[in-house]
């Protein structure tokens, strides 16, 4: 009896090859940038993708302060948070977030595109966002990726 047995490959944390990727966010639309970054962090572009394993690469995003939002989103888009007290709703516009902490805008957009579980929280640690063009990860020799 001649049967073909194709076994499914499952990556394990010890077999995963993690690289470093550098992405420049200057004049890039926030949504397109975030979806690319989330896909790289998750590892969906790799042939050995396994849904329950951190198989993605580490991503460095520079120039977060120069990210683009189309239309009137800079003033009209509101981000919600709650203090935990009654009546404690707080709304912040994208322009205010960009002025106060430019990295939070990109981080929050990427976080929304990752799984909402402990794997998603672990994957978010593979993201480094910097407001300017300087980053301290030159020793990792990141590969520059164009979006």
Could you name the key traits of this structure?
globular; 6 strands; 147 residues; alpha/beta; 4-stranded parallel sheet; Ribosomal Protein L13p, Chain: A
CATH class division of the domain at 20-68 and 107-145? Alpha Beta
Number of helices: 5
Specify the overall morphology. Answer: globular
> How are the strands of the biggest sheet laid out side by side?
5-2-1-6
Global mean pLDDT: 94
CATH topology grouping of the domain at 20-68 and 107-145: Ribosomal Protein L13p, Chain: A
Radius of gyration: 18 Å
Distance between the termini: 51 Å
Largest β sheet strand count, sense and barrel closure: 4 strands, parallel
The number of distinct β-strands equals 6
Percent of residues in beta strands? Answer: 15-25%
Low-confidence stretches: none
H/E order of the elements?
A: EHEHEEHHHEE
CATH architecture of the domain at 20-68 and 107-145: Alpha-Beta Complex
The CATH superfamily of the domain at 20-68 and 107-145 is identified as Ribosomal protein L13
Q: Considering DSSP H and I runs of 4 or more, what fraction of the residues is helical?
A: 25-40%
The structure class reads alpha/beta
In a nutshell, what does this entry contain?
The protein has 147 residues and is an alpha/beta fold. The protein is 27% helix and 18% strand.
């Amino acid at each position: 009896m001649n049967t073909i047995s194709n076994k499914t490959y499952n990556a394990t944390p010890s077999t995963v090859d993690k690289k470093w990727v550098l992405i420049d966010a200057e004049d890039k639309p926030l949504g397109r940038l975030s979806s690319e970054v989330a896909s790289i962090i998750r590892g969906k572009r790799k042939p050995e993708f396994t849904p329950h394993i951190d198989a993605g690469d580490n991503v460095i995003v520079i120039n977060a302060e120069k990210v683009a939002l189309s239309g009137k989103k800079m003033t009209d888009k509101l981000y919600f948070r709650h203090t935990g007290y009654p009546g404690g709703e707080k709304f912040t516009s994208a322009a205010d977030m960009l002025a106060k902490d430019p990295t939070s805008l990109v981080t929050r957009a990427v976080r929304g595109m990752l799984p909402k579980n402990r794997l998603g929280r672990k994957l978010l640690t593979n993201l480094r966002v910097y407001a300017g063009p300087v980053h301290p990860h030159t020793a990792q020799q990141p590969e520059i990726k164009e979006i």
